[in-house]
Design a protein that fits this description.
The protein is built from twelve helices and nine strands. By secondary structure, it is an alpha/beta fold. The protein has two domains: 209 residues, Vaccinia Virus protein VP39 (Rossmann fold), CATH 3.40.50.150; 66 residues, Helicase, Ruva Protein, domain 3, CATH 1.10.8.100.
Length: 295
């Protein structure tokens, strides 16, 4: 036991030193505005690689590769990696470290508006330590793309990971946004000391397995409706939905009753199928767009 702990600390120290040296050699600092916290824990890196079962047959979209800690493991596994990095300083490091590897393509771009589908093809996996401030937007961009990944292994803030993996009773908008496209599992909790510089909060490795999305007339319209439903999550459903849709509570109560949902329930208590049922009744009422000015 003590020997294992010593080995873990030794490896973590090694990755930490390598990270600090790379930053110093290139005259770089972790940029707070980009949410940069670099993974320095080998145990966590190996858990990500093991969970993703990355191999020579895989194309991997790596989001925010940073200094290349995970990139190195993916390339060792034989995967073809498309690494999308917004920071030009990190792109320089990646190019220096792995520039001669034909299985790596480094692209300097913002993943939120880059057409990565053209690079990865129809079958691929996702890996990445997602910046906390845009993690939700990145998940939405990737999962709702025209060719979603078969599997995603991502690092999220623990609080966000728990929302993603929540069940009815504790659900949030993000819960059903993700579960519409994928089945989530929290793989492991990750302490701040696993990163350099350490963040102020715990993180978690999350596994997302692609699922067939439910049939709706418009996913975008459904998500706007869902967002409206969580406008006042502590209120009863008829009032929260009324606030979000800017409709009278009597009207939303009638929609809920027609859908067979008790209007006194709270948004967090519903499951995805129940939200879909309410949405379909809502559309039958003839309201084309949730809320004024949308659509």
């Amino acid at each position: 036991m003590h020997g294992h702990q010593f080995f873990s600390r030794q490896v973590a120290t090694s990755l930490r030193s390598e990270t600090i040296n790379l930053l110093a050699r290139h005259g770089l600092l972790a940029r707070k505005a980009l949410g940069q916290h670099f993974l320095i824990d080998e145990r966590v890196r190996q858990a990500i690689l093991r969970t993703g079962e990355f191999g020579p047959e895989d194309v991997v979209l790596e989001i925010g590769p940073g200094l290349g800690t995970l990139t190195e493991g993916l390339l060792r596994a034989g995967s073809r990696v498309v690494a999308v990095e917004i920071d030009p300083g990190m792109v320089r490091v990646l190019t220096e470290r792995f520039g001669g590897n034909p299985r790596l393509k480094v692209i300097q771009a913002d993943i939120l508006n880059y057409p990565f589908e053209e690079e990865v093809g129809p079958v691929y996996k996702v890996a990445g330590n997602l910046p906390y401030n845009v993690a939700t937007a990145i998940l939405e961009r990737v999962l709702s793309s025209r060719c979603p990944p078969q599997l995603s292994i991502v690092m999220l803030q623990l609080e966000v990971a728990r929302r993603v993996a929540a069940r009815p009773g504790n659900a949030a908008y993000l819960t059903w946004l993700v579960r519409f496209y994928a089945e989530p599992t929290i793989v492991m909790k990750v302490p701040p000391r696993a990163f350099w510089p350490p963040p102020k909060v715990y993180s978690a490795v999350v596994k997302l397995v692609r699922r067939q999305p439910p049939q709706v007339d418009s996913p975008e319209a459904f998500f706007r409706f869902l967002q409206a439903g969580f406008a006042q999550p502590r209120k009863q459903l008829r009032n929260s939905l009324a606030d979000g849709l800017r409709r009278p509570p009597t009207e939303t109560a009638a929609i809920l009753e027609k859908a067979g949902i008790d209007p006194r329930r709270r948004p967090a208590d519903l499951g995805l199928e129940e939200w879909l049922k309410i949405y379909r009744v809502y559309r039958e009422y003839g309201f084309a767009h949730p809320g004024p000015g949308e659509g």
